[in-house]
Amino acid sequence: MKPILLFDIDGTLLHVKRDFLSGLIRSLFDEYSLDFKSVKSTSFAGRTDKDIFFELIKSGGLKESDFDSIKKSYIKLMRTQFSNVHVNPITEALKAARYAKQNGFEVGLCTGNFEEIAYLKVETAGMEGLFNFGGFGCNHTDRKYLPGAAHNSYQKVYAKSPEPQQYVVIGDTPNDIRCAKYYGARSIAVTTGGFDKDHLKKYQPDLILASLDQPERWLAQI
Question: What is the CATH number of the domain that holds 134?
Answer without folding.
Answer: 3.40.50.1000
